[in-house]
Amino acid sequence: MQENVRVSVAMATYNGEKFIKEQLESVLASLGPEDEVVISDDGSTDATKVVISSFDDQRIRLLEGPGKGIKKNFENAIKACIGKHIFLCDQDDIWEKEKVSAVLGAFEKYKCPVVVHDCVVTDSEGKVLEDSFFRFRKSGAGVLKNIVKNTYIGCCMAFDSDILKKIILPIPDNIVMHDQWIGVFGDYFGGSVFIPDKLIKYRRHGDNSSEIDRHFGFATMVRNRLRFIKELSKRRKLINRQTI
């Protein structure tokens, strides 16, 4: 295993054979020879792992997922990453070739723990549904803003592993979104930065789901926010005790 990995890509997969080849091709084209792609597969029953293995690329590491859903599958990938900067990655989008260089440039410019970029939202065939996720979601940094209404989107996020990896893990079981958890801690520890570059085509289709099209009832939303605040407070107290 290389010790000078610059970028790790943490990808979570589950029955993604339809789009995984195009996604991996776009990811690898954005990376350098010293980078890595850590894929946690959560028990796919289709040809997902066969497609991944067909790449025969030394930068790819394929792990068995824990079988506990998307949050823990991402956590499994993140734990195995050794790069300075960790990029979250879904199994069905398309990266622009300049994605990694643009995001690393933002880390260097702003000296921040989390960078989030904009994206174009498409359907399964590539037809544009929204030409700016940021505008659609009214995205932006801020702890309170993103507890009230999450505007983080995992497939457009990267974070500094030196600052956040030990802080965010383990991801609490009873929160809804891992990207919100990571982003809010980025806001606490130096501030998350949103850049306007549209660096992926974010594919929406019948086999995936996310905050863009998820709607909860009012009572459920209130419970989710209270749980998030409770877990946030518990983790902050733990961090404070460890640094005293």
Brief descriptors of the model:
single chain; 244 residues; globular; nine-stranded mixed beta sheet; Spore Coat Polysaccharide Biosynthesis Protein SpsA, Chain A; alpha/beta; 39% helix
Description of the structure:
With 244 residues, the protein is an alpha/beta fold. The protein has a single domain, classed as Spore Coat Polysaccharide Biosynthesis Protein SpsA, Chain A. It is 39% helix and 22% strand. It contains nine helices and nine strands. It has helices spanning 20-30, 48-53, 70-80, 99-110, 133-137, 143-148, 161-168, 178-188, 218-243, and strands spanning 7-13, 36-41, 60-64, 85-89, 94-95, 114-122, 128-130, 157-160, 192-203. Strands 1, 2, 3, 4, 5, 6, 7, 8 and 9 form a nine-stranded mixed β-sheet that branches. The termini are far apart.
